[in-house]
Amino acid sequence: MKITHTIEELRQTLKPYRQQTVGLVPTMGYLHEGHLSLVKRARQECDIVVMSIFVNPLQFGPQEDLDRYPRDLPRDAALAEKAGVDFLFHPTVEEMYPTPTHTQIIVSEVTEVLCGASRPGHFAGVTTVVGKLFHIVMPDRAYFGLKDAQQVAVIEQMVQDLNFPITVVACDIVRESDGLALSSRNVYLSPEERKQALILSQALFAAKEGLGQGRWKTAQEVNHFVRKTIETQPLAVIDYVETLTYPTLQPIDQLTDQPMIVAVAVYFGRTRLIDNILFVGRE
After folding, report:
1. Residue 282: per-residue pLDDT
2. Which residue, 108, 122, 126, 250, has most beta carbons within 10 Å?
3. Where in the chain is the domain with CATH 3.40.50.620?
4. What positions constitute the catalytic site (predicted)?
5. Whole-model pTM?
6. Where in the chain is CATH 3.30.1300.10?
7. Mind giving me the DSSP string for the chain?
8. 216 confidence band (pLDDT: 50, 70, 90)
């Protein structure tokens, strides 16, 4: 595996491989099995696998955890190489943003709910940095995890609207054996917070079962059930619980068999966790 730190070096490195299928796995590092599952999928489908590790300041708000976000390049590089990454791109902030950024990629509508409503400006930072990475790497396929299903929907919309010649590959959530969705931020959780955080997957799995059984008639009933279930844990502070169409992320009143997402964001202490389930109709 070759590690590159500059845009020009990466572009020159990739030049000989332009006739092959290039896959990109964009990350902010502190890799876990969720990230590595994206690499595994990319390795199966592509000739060349590029991973980026860049903690992107544009997608963090003023009071968010940019400074304390976990970073460990030697650990990540070892995991990436073992998983089969060919080229690891690890730029500095100065390399990615050498001058103040006056141009951003703004995706409307799908960014205005869920995390987009809770974290103003977050998705403009995401789409801008992903757009830059797409231009730098010029991949054929790009791999994203569905733990942040809204991000997947936003990136798919950007790719469609701006005619990026890239296939966005959405990959399933990877969970711990007890159901907790893998996240780099899980390291922030105290033992008791982590224990109580299991209520997220428990509530969502129960909601998916209830939807499959036709237990509820409205999205409001689903949200009420999930909210009340999460509130059984005293450390849980709910940011949002929403049931929306997917991937368009439009409000739902009466439930139908259309594809939908039940998404949550919940604080345990200072740590904000997100999780979701996708429901594509009764089986």
Report:
1. 61
2. 126
3. 2-171
4. 35
5. 0.96
6. 184-278
7. -EEE-SHHHHHHHHGGGTTS-EEEEEE-SS--HHHHHHHHHHHHH-SEEEEEE---GGGS-TTSSTTTS---HHHHHHHHHHHT-SEEE---HHHH-SS---------STTSSTHHHHSTTHHHHHHHHHHHHHHHH--SEEEEEGGGHHHHHHHHHHHHHHT-S-EEEEE---B-TTSPBP-GGGGG--HHHHHHHHHHHHHHHHHHHHHHTT--SBHHHHHHHHHHHHTTSTTEEEEEEEEEETTT--B-SB--SS-EEEEEEEEETTEEEEEEEEE----
8. very high
- Bridge partner residues of 170 (DSSP): 144
CB 281 within 8 A of CB 213: no
Cα gap 248→266, rounded to integer Å = 22
Q: What contacts 246, CB < 8 A, 6 or more positions away?
A: 149, 153, 259, 260, 261, 278
5, 35, 90, 102: which one is catalytic? 35
Share of the chain above pLDDT 70, in %: 99
Q: Tell me: pLDDT of 283 over 70.
A: no
30 marked as binding residue: yes
Condensed to tens digits (0 to 9), the pLDDT of residues 57-74 reads: 999 999 899 999 999 999
Asked if residue 233 lies in contact with residue 219, where contact means CB atoms within 8 angstroms, the answer is no
Q: Is 224 designated active site?
A: no
CATH of domain 2-171: 3.40.50.620
Pair 262, 275: CB distance under 8 Å: no
Annotation-wise, does 35 bind a ligand?
A: yes
**Superfamily designation of domain 184-278:** Pantoate-beta-alanine ligase, C-terminal domain (3.30.1300.10)
